[in-house]
Amino acid sequence: MKALPNILTSLRLVLTLFVFMALATVAGAVPGFSEHLTPEDQFGLQRWAFWAFVIAAVTDFFDGWLARKLDAVSVWGAILDPIGDKVLVCGAILGLLALGGQPAVVLPAGLMLFREFTVSALREVGAGKGIKLPVTRLAKWKTTLQLTALAAEMVIASWGAFDLPAEPAVRDPATLIAHSLMWAATIVTLITGAQYWEQTRKALAET
């Protein structure tokens, strides 16, 4: 049972790979296969990608909760969990962009990717000097907001796959909500990135 949290984290990585590959395939990025997909096949892959993303996002909560509940916190889990979070977010963003995400998504998506890679680099530099960057409460909320926003954007990008009403009176408000969530997530993402940058700068100055 104590291996369950790490199994869930590993499952998140596998599901993320599927999400990206499914969306990239629909976008025509797999020569010799993508061009043979029927519209129904494309819609099916988009639906599967969305639900795989939702399941992966849910594991993000349960693996940490189970690790504490089962007293199964481990070094391996501490390494895998943040990697799983970042891979899930980055994989979904790249999949959305491959699918031809709306122009309004490109800038916030790029800023999110920039922050994630920057913080990862900061952690690596800090680790080499014995500096730890603990995950803040705001950073945890950031991940939740990112996943919610990305799920909403996946629905917008795959609107036809879910057989949702095509009327502008329905789609336009839904799109506005998704884009607003995306920008809210981006703002919080940049704030937490600035916080980690400042923590690292102060810690390096003291060494």
Task: Describe the structure in your own words.
The model has no long low-confidence stretch (mean pLDDT 86). This protein has 207 residues and is mainly α. The chain starts with a helix and ends with a helix. It has a single domain, classed as Four Helix Bundle (Hemerythrin (Met), subunit A). It is 80% helix and 0% strand.
Shape call: globular
The sequence of SSEs as H and E is HHHHHH
Q: CATH top level?
A: Mainly Alpha
- Give average pLDDT, whole number: 86
Number of domains: 1
Classification by helices and strands: mainly alpha
**CATH A-level architecture:** Up-down Bundle
Distance between the termini: 41 Å
Number of helices: 6
Report the C-alpha radius of gyration, rounded. Answer: 18 Å
The amount of helix comes to over 70%
Q: Roughly what fraction of the amino acids lie in strands?
A: under 5%
The biggest beta sheet, please?
none
Q: At the third CATH level, what is the topology name?
A: Four Helix Bundle (Hemerythrin (Met), subunit A)
Uncertain runs are none
Tally the beta strands: 0
